[in-house]
Every structure is written in C-alpha cells, then in structure tokens.
Design goal:
This protein has a two-stranded antiparallel sheet. The protein is an all-alpha fold. The chain has two domains: about 45 residues; about 220 residues, MetI-like (MetI-like fold, Orthogonal Bundle). It is globular and about 75 Å long. The chain is built from twelve helices and two strands, in the order ααββαααααααααα.
C-alpha cells in the first residue's frame, strides 16, 4: 500500500513539476517582452515629436535647453569610449588570469585565488564609482595634470576592473573544457607550458574566450553608476579620455533623478536612449552567441 502511494505521489509530481517549471520560464520571457513593449511604446511617442534621422545623426545632445536638440551621437561616442578603454584594461588582465588559473595554478592555489578574484563581481557599482572618483582620478591628475575631475579614463579603468572577473571566469571555464589529451600531445612533441597554453589551449577554447570578451564588453556598455559618478555629465564629441563625457546610461540617471515633467518630450527621451542601449547590448549578446555556436569545438566521443 505504501509503495502504491509513493508511486502515485511520484506520478503526480511528474505531471505537476513540468508545468511549474514552465511557469517560471514564462515569467522570464514575459518580463523581457514587457520591458521591450514599454520601451517601444514610449519611444514611438518620443519619435512622433522628434525625427528618427535627427536623433541618430544629430551631433548635439541638449534636451534640457530652451531650444532642445536630441542628437544622440555624443552619448553613443561616450559609451563607445568607455567600452574601448575598459577593454584595454579588462581583456589582457582577464585572459592572463584565466591562463594562469587554468594552466599554471595548483588546485590549492586555484581554490583560493579564484574566489578572491570573483569578489570583485560582488562589489556594488556605486562603490566602484566612488573609488574611481576619489582614488583613481587623483592619481591620474598627479601623472597627467590636465586630467579633469570627471573624466572618461578614470571611469574606463574602473569599469575594466569591474568586468575582469566575468572575462576571467568564463575564459577559464572554456580552457578547462579543453581535453587533457591535447595538452599531453603538445608536451609529447617538446612544447613548453607557455607554448601549450598560447598555441593549443587558447585556440581550442577560442569560441568561449571571445564570447566572454563580448559579454564582458556588453556589461561595460550598460554600466551606470561608475560612469555617472566618475565620467561626468557633459555630452560632447570628444576623443580625449581626460575630459568629461556622458554615456547613454548616465543620461538616463540624470533625467530620472531630476524634476522633468512626466510625459514631456524631455522625459520620453530616456526611453529613446534606453531602447538604443537595449539594441546595442542585444546585438552584442547575439554576436557572442553566434561566435560560440560557430567556433565551438566538439571533443566528445
């Protein structure tokens, strides 16, 4: 009798649990669709007053002036600048630490170093912002006196530090998935440990490494508090990282925290900026997925 009840309970759970899990999956999907719907709805309202062409080609972003101008190019360039300089910091450091953890570090050292490295991912971004403003910027000003208080370089360095754990962790996972037989084959023909790491392991794990780069940089594109605190709020077309700039995310913070009338064109501009940012990050994530699927190596069987 007890066996019959247990079998009946298992049968009931096998019928119910897939539906419960499907519900959880649908919540995520519906949330994504809701976000996209709100962005599109409000952006369409904005673009009914502002030309799409002027928005994406205009060179001046002055939405709060008496004669507002909604050219988003300065914000996009500011975002690209932060992403570019942060990549110079994060990509080599993240990849180098991944190579060390995967190929050089003993198991005991890896179990200590990797969690410490990943602590960086748990630090609130507003703390990173104050770190950039009060620690990194004064150092830059001593080295380069022309550095402004709010500048792109300081923010870029700290954003790069912030995304190192993501790049390092994902790259190391990709390298650890490379079969030991490939390493042993390279050692058998006289390769050094460095040659094995650079010429065998990294190429074999290239799809995962590149995907980690793209995902890390998409995280940099969407960073908010660091750039809002350290990079400033000056929407200008400038390629000098020592000057103050403004990014897409920083503008959203600026307007959201201000006294802009709800429903005005100025207020709706944050949705237009938001959907631009969404399109950029979505494109980068799709690129990461494409790279992973196209260049993935199958070592099974």
């Amino acid at each position: 009798m007890n066996a019959f009840k247990r079998k009946k309970n298992w049968y009931s759970s096998d019928r119910v649990m897939p539906k419960v899990l499907l519900g959880f999956s649908l919540i995520s999907i519906l949330t994504t669709f809701a976000i996209v719907f709100i962005l599109l709805k409000e952006s369409i309202t904005f673009f009914s007053s502002v030309s799409v062409y002027d928005f994406f080609t205009g060179l001046k972003w002055e939405p709060l002036f008496a004669e507002p101008k909604f050219g988003v190019v300065p914000l996009i360039l500011g975002t690209v600048m932060i992403t570019f300089f942060s990549s110079i910091v994060a990509l080599p450091v993240g990849l180098g630490s991944a190579i060390y953890l995967s190929e050089y570090a003993p198991d005991r050292v890896r179990t200590i170093v990797k969690p410490i490295l990943e602590i960086l991912a748990g630090i609130p971004t507003i703390v990173y912002g104050f770190f950039a403003l009060t620690f990194v910027t004064p150092i830059l000003q001593k080295i380069i006196p022309s550095t402004e208080v709010f500048n792109a370089l300081s923010a870029s360095i700290v954003v790069g530090i912030m995304i190192i754990p993501m790049i390092s962790s994902l790259s190391e996972d990709a390298m650890m998935a490379v079969p030991r037989a490939l390493r042993n084959g390279a050692y058998a023909v006289g390769s050094t440990k460095l040659e094995v790491a650079i010429k065998v392991v990294v190429p074999a794990a290239l799809s995962g490494i590149i995907a980690s780069f793209v995902l890390g940089l998409s995280r940099a594109v969407g960073e908010t508090m660091i750039v809002a605190l350290a990079a400033g709020l000056q929407p200008r077309i400038s390629f000098n990282p020592l000057e103050s700039i403004e990014t897409l995310t920083a503008y959203i913070v600026q307007v959201s925290a201000g006294d802009i009338q709800y429903g005005s064109v100025e207020y709706l501009s944050i949705y237009a900026v938001g959907i631009t940012l969404f399109a950029i990050t979505l494109g980068m994530n799709l690129l990461a997925n494409y790279i992973s699927s196209k260049f993935r190596e199958d070592y099974g069987g």
